[in-house]
Amino acid sequence: MPRSVNHVASRARRKKILKLTKGYFGKRKNVWTVAKNTWEKGQQYAYRDRRQKKRNFRSLWIARINAGVRQYGMSYSVFMGEVHKKGVALNRKALADLATNNPQAFKTIVDLVKN
For residues 10, 24, 40 and 19, what is the CA-based torsion angle, rounded to 10 degrees? Predict the structure, then answer.
């Protein structure tokens, strides 16, 4: 008896991947093996970078706070230590936003922490 192959299902599976790789350059969009490998690697990068994004934003916030605090003669580490001692309930994201978009409010926090 001849071997039975579910060609409908396998073709659908391939079309699904090729649809996902639409817009890629060269063979990455229309050659099955290349498209599959490219798509799988992209999924690995997406998984990894969802975690790295959190690290990157935290380092950006730290850089912005440090730049804002240096204007007032403090370092980032001293400032954050004093913020925690004084019990200021603002996280790094909020402090970085104040440092970039509202320097007057950030200056009041720095003055509060210095005294």
Answer: -30
